[in-house]
UniProtKB/TrEMBL annotation:
It comes from Rhodopseudomonas rhenobacensis. GO terms for molecular function: catalytic activity; iron-sulfur cluster binding; metal ion binding. InterPro entries: Aldolase_TIM (IPR013785), rSAM (IPR007197), rSAM_sf (IPR058240). This is Radical SAM core domain-containing protein. Its cofactor is [4Fe-4S] cluster. It comes from the Bacteria. Gene3D superfamilies: Aldolase class I. Keywords: Iron, Iron-sulfur, Metal-binding, S-adenosyl-L-methionine. Residues 151-303 form the Radical SAM core domain. Coiled coil: none annotated.
Length: 404
């Protein structure tokens, strides 16, 4: 009989494996793809913002899979990876070299993916189903920084649009989004949604988000639809109040880099076109007062600047009531930093542990962390769920131990 302590040991090992797969990616055999059938049986990738695989592809690939104890791993295809998913009989297994590490399960295709909007667009092209019951809606896969040659150097949003743009509508209107959100809620497949996209002119962004909130409320019948508005820091801070008044529970403004000098070099568009680093921080502090403690998020792309700087940013943001996050940096194809290397998996695990400690020290609840994220499959979320025994596998283990 496995004890809770033994289960935690197994989960920490599983988390280390997840970190390896996030940094190094995973290959998959044609036989495994034929069995799981992404886009038919298994949930397929939707290139709504970024290409997160190591190489572009025309083959339909799965979005994510689960390890034996319930940790969710985003599928990052790397045909050169030493990790691969293959078949043993009818089992899909993760293999490293010649060693079978674990059986893995792929997420079934969401029910709402097969539905269509009233104007005939497949809902999978309007909103992507992210791990842990999140709906991620991207209004448009464009960023206006491209026009001035000022894309963030780690970002491949415009490249992804150029490569995969024919897959889905260039611009999703408010009605399509409202209908898709309503269907996902109706099927009981989501508890939270995020609206996001590239940088567009401020007034256009504000009007659009207000229209989307109204449409979601009308189609779902929910005044509080647990939505996050992911926006650029507005030059007119009063616009933040309008996002809150329109019905969004949380907001996100991603600063990307904490070190000011590195920020100016890596994020030229944000440094020159959105008020700069100082204004971005000011907007986050203001948003925390409007939305409340733990209801505002800002992400740092971890691994580009020194860890010490990232931790300093996470600590400062948390002290102001802002949930700072630090995601794994993927040197995406088509970005200016393509071909660079992320730090080692252990680097990210250490940072994730520090991040969870900062969250807890500053009084954030897990529900707040859940609500303000676009997805809850990060290393940090897993650490919190392991530490506080929130994963479903804990309840089952405790039940079996009690019955013994």
């Amino acid at each position: 009989m496995t004890t809770v302590g033994e289960l935690k040991d197994q989960l920490w090992r599983e988390l280390a494996l997840k970190a390896e797969l996030g940094i190094n990616g995973v290959a998959i055999s044609g036989e495994a793809l034929e069995l799981i059938q992404p886009g038919v049986k298994a949930q397929e990738q939707v290139h709504c913002l970024f290409e997160m695989d190591f190489e572009i592809h025309t083959t339909e690939l799965p979005s994510h899979f689960q390890l034996p104890h319930g940790l969710t791993v985003p599928f990052r295809w790397n045909p050169k990876s030493t990790y691969r998913i293959d078949l043993i009989g009818e089992r899909t297994v993760l293999i490293h070299g010649n060693e079978v590490l674990a059986d893995v399960e792929f997420q079934p295709r969401p029910k709402f993916y097969g539905a269509k909007t009233s104007d005939g667009i497949e809902m999978s092209n309007i909103g992507a189903h992210y791990a842990q019951r999140h709906l991620f809606i991207v209004y448009s896969n464009e960023c206006s920084y491209k026009e001035k040659g000022e894309d963030c150097l780690f970002c491949n949003i415009n490249y992804t649009r150029d490569v995969y743009g024919a897959e889905r509508p260039f611009w999703k209107n408010a009605k399509q989004i409202g209908e898709t959100a309503a269907q996902a809620y109706r099927f009981g497949e989501i508890d939270h949604l995020t609206v996001s996209g590239g940088i567009i002119p401020e007034r256009r962004e504000l009007d659009y988000y207000l229209d989307v909130a109204e449409s979601i409320q009308r189609h779902t019948g929910l005044d509080d639809f647990n939505g996050t508005a992911t926006v650029a820091a507005p030059l007119d801070l009063r616009n933040i109040d309008r996002f809150k008044e329109s019905g969004y529970r949380t907001t996100a403004m991603n600063i990307e880099i904490w070190d000011k000098g590195i920020y100016n070099a890596i994020c030229p568009g944000k440094a020159r076109g959105s008020g700069g680093w100082e204004h971005w921080v000011k907007a986050l502090e203001y948003a925390a007062k409007v939305f409340g403690h733990g209801r505002v998020r800002s992400n740092i792309v971890a691994g580009i600047e020194p860890k010490k700087s990232t931790v300093a940013g996470l600590e400062y943001l948390a002290s102001k009531g802002v949930v700072g996050t630090a995601t794994v940096w993927c040197p995406n194809p088509g970005s200016e930093l393509e071909g660079h290397r992320s730090p080692e998996p252990g680097w990210y695990l250490d940072l994730a542990h520090k991040q969870v400690a900062i969250w807890k020290k500053n009084g954030f609840s897990y529900q707040q962390i859940y609500d303000c994220h676009a997805s809850s499959d990060s290393l940090q979320h897993d650490i919190w769920r392991i530490e506080d025994e929130l994963l479903p596998v804990f309840a089952e283990t405790k039940r079996l131990v009690a019955a013994e």
